[in-house]
Amino acid sequence: VQLQASGGGLVRPGGSLRLSCAASGSIFSIGTMGWYRQVPGKQRESVATTTRRGSTNYADSVKGRFTISRDNAKNTVYLQMNSLKPEDTAVYYCHAESVTYYSGRNLVTEYDYWGQGTQVTVSS
């Protein structure tokens, strides 16, 4: 099972970006998924999370500007980022708390999957 993030880039302040993260493999189900971000010298922080049923949680710094969503059929989580600010500049990582997948005839659940990170730069 792998998580592949995409959609980062360079955008001007006030602009928008949409990040995507697709999980690949013989997946049966995925638990809570989320986006985290990290800048050099700082700890990785949670940006937004969504449960399998669609309950969401946001960091105060992004409430009202970012929207997290997921498509369970596609094993994909999205992060729509609007009204971007220079302080949103970071490497963004997607995360899955648990992934249940087929291994032969068996179902296996493993925990704490991370994508490879995608750079978001907000600058004029």
What can you tell me about this protein's structure?
This protein has 124 residues and is mostly beta strands. 0% of the residues lie in helices and 60% in strands. The chain is built from no helices and twelve strands. The strands form two sheets. Strands 2, 4, 5, 6, 7, 10, 11 and 12 form an eight-stranded mixed beta sheet that branches. Strands 1-3-9-8 form a four-stranded antiparallel beta sheet, with no helix packed on it. Strand 6 and strand 7 form a beta hairpin. It is elongated and about 55 Å long. The N and C termini lie far apart (38 Å). The model has no long low-confidence stretch (mean pLDDT 96).
Average pLDDT confidence is: 96
Radius of gyration: 15 Å
**Strand-pairing-aware structural class:** mainly beta
Intertermini distance = 38 Å
Largest sheet: 8 strands, mixed
Count the DSSP helices: 0
Count every beta strand, where a strand is a DSSP E run of 2 or more residues: 12
> How helix-rich are the residues, as a percent range?
under 10%
Order of helices and strands: EEEEEEEEEEEE
Shape: elongated
Which residue ranges are poorly predicted, with pLDDT under 50 across at least 5 consecutive positions?
none
Beta-strand residue fraction: over 45%
